[in-house]
Design a protein that fits this description.
By secondary structure, the chain is an alpha+beta fold. It is built from eight helices and 18 strands. Strands 1, 2, 6, 7, 9 and 10 form a six-stranded antiparallel β-sheet that branches. The radius of gyration is 20 Å and the shape is globular. It starts with a helix and ends with a strand. About 40% of the residues are buried. The N terminus is likely disordered.
């Protein structure tokens, strides 16, 4: 066996540990009006800014990390199931089992942030990241009763201790969804076949995506007008039709890079003077989580100097201006990370 491959395999061995949990369930009814206002589905996706920062040349992980509902730690009833067997790897999985036409919600409260997701009512498991890292979480599944009223069907609380802080951002989730059979994964392997560093992978994926996808102005207009209430990207469909909104671009690039072992955060929040936006942070072993370099300005994608990992490095005046802007905490305000 190749020595490098052996080292990678050994580095990925995870010591599994049981996580103590206390479960709670009830039929409490809540009003999700305020939570709905903060969902990704309500963001004006037609005017997103997306930023990718290349890594500092660290070798990529050569293993596709995929979630599984292993059934070791489960809270379930006749309507829904929450599988929290793999919290040490930074995710949970949920499924709605009962027949219903009602909208289903998941509320995932972490140590710092409360996330609200839609859950499909087709019985399939979906993956949700523990984006806040290690700490106490409560997960509840709710069914819509009327208007913005939801009743709690099932919930569980647990304490997660992640074995790797990057784990939630190396695997698929609802917004960055792929598996071993995904055409997106195969395409990423093809695009990155000659790449030897993560920096080269980021550049290769970016160049491939922007040279082949076109912006879907109709979809952007429908979302802005409220005709599309809840939107979740389908990366293989985006890859097939070669068309999408900014969120599609970001999701596709995130999926391709994660499948190649590059840790990526899909961030949503606001930008001063620009409203709701999304951007992509990438992990650098020398800088940690950093932001910028590839972004969407509302009309076209632009790529600045991909070699810098901090504003102190040599770059164009345009790059320096963007780095200064993004580096100012009063300009970019992150709200959610996926």
């Amino acid at each position: 066996m190749n020595k490098n491959i052996l080292c990678v395999i050994l580095s990925l061995v995870i010591i599994l540990g049981l996580i103590s949990a206390c479960a709670s369930a009830g039929a409490d009814e809540i009003d999700l009006t305020e939570l709905d206002a903060g969902e990704m589905s309500d963001v004006d996706l037609g005017f997103l800014i997306d930023d990718i920062i290349p890594l500092a040349g660290a070798p990529a992980i050569s293993l596709l990390l995929l979630p599984e509902a292993s059934g070791k730690m489960v809270k379930s009833n006749s309507s829904a199931v929450i599988d929290y067997s793999n919290t040490e790897d930074g995710y949970i999985m949920c499924a709605w089992l009962a027949k219903t036409d009602s909208r289903i919600k998941i509320i995932l409260q972490g140590p710092e942030t409360k996330y609200t997701y839609d859950l499909k009512n087709n019985g399939d498991y979906e993956t949700f990241p523990l984006s806040d890292g290690s700490g106490a979480y409560t997960v509840g599944i709710y069914r819509n009763t009327t208007g913005t009223k939801y009743t709690k069907i099932i919930s569980v609380s647990f304490t997660a201790k992640l074995t790797d802080e990057l784990a939630p951002f190396l695997r698929p989730n609802q917004y960055v969804n792929f598996n071993e059979e995904s055409k997106t994964v195969a395409k990423a392997a093809e695009v990155c076949k000659d790449c030897t560093t993560n920096l080269e992978k980021v550049a290769a994926v970016y160049e491939w995506v922007i040279s082949r996808l076109t912006y879907d102005t109709d979809k952007a207009a429908d979302i802005k007008a409220g005709k599309i209430k809840s939107y979740i990207p389908d990366v293989d469909n985006i890859l097939s039709i070669r068309k999408g909104i900014c969120f599609d671009y970001a999701s596709l690039m995130s999926a391709m890079l994660r499948s190649q072992g590059v840790p990526v955060k899909l961030i949503t929040g606001t930008v001063k003077g620009g409203g709701n936006h999304a951007w992509i942070n990438v992990w650098s072993e020398t800088e940690g989580w950093i932001t910028a370099a590839i972004y969407f300005n509302g009309e076209t994608w632009e790529r600045m100097d991909p070699t810098f990992a901090s504003s102190s490095r040599k770059s164009s005046s345009k790059t320096k201006q963007m780095v200064k802007y993004i580096g100012n905490g009063t300009n970019y305000t992150a709200k959610y990370q996926y």
